[in-house]
Amino acid sequence: MDAPLNLQNLKNGLSKLTIREQVSHRLAAMVQSGILRIGDELPSERELAATLEVSRETVRGAIQMLAAIGMVEISQGSRTRIARTQGFSANNSVTQPVLSGRSAEEVYQARLMVEIPVIRVAVERIDDDGIARLRRLVEAQRDMVNDHIRFQISDAEFHDCIYHASGNELVGGFLHELFSFGMEYRRHVLLREGSVSLSLDDHIEILDAFERRDPMAAAEAMENHLNRIHQTTLEAMAETRAGRR
């Protein structure tokens, strides 16, 4: 079984890496957390560069690093595909034993208890560059309503930007792993017509609260977002169970 990537150790080591190495680690983390899965086609170099806000050359180098360890397959004339989840050595995540066997309800309640206070702090601490980053992500997401893989990558960046703005990387790493819980069901939900648009609408409300520097409005918008995600995830889980009967 593939070992999960320790996201906190990853964050602690990023400052020692080149930008190309940081991008390769970010993409690897998305694979090992379930945001990207085996067989998924990566967005184009241009699209990834825009979402991650790095150069196309940096993205190309990062993908080549992942190809060298077999995590992705590069084919001439077609998009790069995720080939396997192995490749980066990692210790067990701090939250892995905690999340193992937990229900969607427990994880949802944990996100409410942790993420809502965090977003209030993030609104107070985020700088103009951080708000501009959120704004660029949301604007780009308007063109992703029919591309759930690109949206999932941008969605993770949107939430990570908020977690980072809180100033607590330990809590941010924990929330990232909670965010990734049940990703297989979230992917199923995002394939439904209109689902990406609903998430985009939520992001627009959250962004609006950040731009107004309104912690209470941001917390309310995030809670509404989490409530909707939880409900649609439960529906997807029920559909999956029904399909196995």
Structure explained in plain terms:
- This protein has 245 residues and is mainly α.
- The protein has two domains: 19-82, Winged helix-like DNA-binding domain superfamily/Winged helix DNA-binding domain (Arc Repressor Mutant, subunit A), CATH 1.10.10; 96-243, Up-down Bundle (Four Helix Bundle (Hemerythrin (Met), subunit A)).
- It has twelve helices and two strands, in the order ααααββαααααααα.
- The protein has helices spanning 7-14, 19-33, 45-52, 56-68, 96-99, 104-125, 128-141, 148-165, 169-180, 183-190, 195-211, 215-244, and strands at residues 72-73, 81-82.
- It has a two-stranded antiparallel ribbon.
- β1 (72-73) and β2 (81-82) form a beta hairpin.
- α2 (19-33) packs across α4 (56-68) and α6 (104-125) runs antiparallel to α9.
- The two termini are 26 Å apart.
Topology:
Blueprint: H1 7-14, H2 19-33, H3 45-52, H4 56-68, E1 72-73, E2 81-82, H5 96-99, H6 104-125, H7 128-141, H8 148-165, H9 169-180, H10 183-190, H11 195-211, H12 215-244
Antiparallel strand pairs: 1-2
Radius of gyration: 17 Å
β-strand amount: under 5%
Task: Please identify the top-level CATH class of the largest domain.
Answer: Mainly Alpha
Mean pLDDT rating: 84
Fourth-tier CATH superfamily name of the largest domain = GntR ligand-binding domain-like
Give a count of the beta strands, DSSP E runs of length 2 or more. 2
Largest sheet, if any? 2 strands, antiparallel
**Low-confidence stretches at least 5 residues in length (pLDDT < 50)?**
1-14, 89-95
Helix content: 55-70%
Our count of domains comes out at: 2
How many helices? The count is 12
- Overall CATH architecture of the largest domain: Up-down Bundle
User: Which sequence of strands runs across the widest sheet?
Assistant: 1-2
Order of helices and strands: HHHHEEHHHHHHHH
CATH fold assignment of the largest domain: Four Helix Bundle (Hemerythrin (Met), subunit A)
Span from first to last CA? Answer: 26 Å
Domain HTH gntR-type: 17-85
Pfam families: FCD, GntR
Keywords: DNA-binding, Transcription, Transcription regulation
Protein name: FadR family transcriptional regulator
